[in-house]
Amino acid sequence: MTPDAEAIAAEALRRFVAEALMSRGVPRTDAAKVSALMVEADLYGYGTHGVFRLRQYLARLRDGGYNASPVLSVVKETSATALIDGDNGLGHLAMSAARDLAIDKARKVGIGWVGVRRGNHAGPLALYVRPQAEAGMLGMAAAVGSANHVPPYGGSDLLLGTNPIAVSAPVDGPDPFVFDMATTVAAMGKIKTLIQRGEPMPEGWMVGKDGQPLTDPSRASEGFLLPIGGPKGFGLSVVIGLFAGVLNGAAFGSDVVDFTADTTSETNTGQFVMALDPAAFGLGDGFAKRAAAVFAEMRASLPLPGHDPVRLPGDGKAAVAEAQRRDGLTLNPSLQRDLNALATDCGLVAPFTAA
């Protein structure tokens, strides 16, 4: 990023994204919800899953792959569980509804688990677990990836996605614990940003069909993403597929639609969100205090030679978000150019002047 790169105020970016979505038929209220979550992803540093994804969403809205005006519904419900049908709308709508319902159920009965079917790509899962931690609860969310880039361990057919999972917990201090990861060595979003920037991939992210390292991100379709930990990552990805896909009546395996390559078909993406109240275990605020004490021990661990001090997942995110709310977001120049191009496509004023 160049030192003189143009910054944009978070509110201005939210407004632009909302207007772009509305230009494709998304109602104003829904566009405001989705744009706020997309920009929040960038504020907290999840740039591969924030406004970078706008081009993909607009393409699917244009071509009929998304329902611009979905009517969400709860199709199954108990005191602690529910299943939401996202009506093939923008994924952020169903996932934020699932998150809020899970939190509400946890407040009432100690735990809430809400599945989603007929959803879509919804940005980083951190968006759907951080609020639980901020409310003093533990959170978890997972999703079947929006395209298959991974074969079963030892196989060669693409039957698994990046299948991400996120977990959060309350901690005394400025940052809750927020752990958000793909079950592959790298998320596909990181590879897409490298393509946009014209940069190579590190070895170890992908291999070609000949089993040799693949470092050209523009050739990603010619190879496989690698699971974390070999067969262990494969197994975890399958678990997520069972809980987020099969359990919800959503896509898993060969049923998964590549939402970038195919902009006309419904994806039936499956996800789930969980909220757990420590008070149900007699802890209440004691959980956050105990977690803070344990994390302080970990951070105090003497670093190995050549290593930075120990950090916990989520450390520093609040400060990053606050700084960007104050000073504006400085997006990658290639992303700025892409957003300006999308503005032209949508008949809007370009958000950046120097891109």
Automatic annotation (TrEMBL):
Keywords on record: Oxidoreductase
Pfam families registered for this protein in UniProt: Ldh_2 (PF02615)
Keyword Cell membrane set for record: no
Top-rank taxon: Bacteria
GO MF entry, a single one: oxidoreductase activity
InterPro entries in UniProt: Mal/L-sulf/L-lact_DH-like_ah, Mal/L-sulf/L-lact_DH-like_NADP, Mal/L-sulfo/L-lacto_DH-like_sf, Malate/L-lactate_DH-like
Ion transport is among the record's keywords: no
Family, as annotated: Belongs to the LDH2/MDH2 oxidoreductase family.
PANTHER family attached to this UniProt entry: MALATE DEHYDROGENASE, OXIDOREDUCTASE-RELATED
Protein name: Oxidoreductase YjmC
Annotated organism of origin: Roseicyclus marinus
Gene that encodes the chain: yjmC
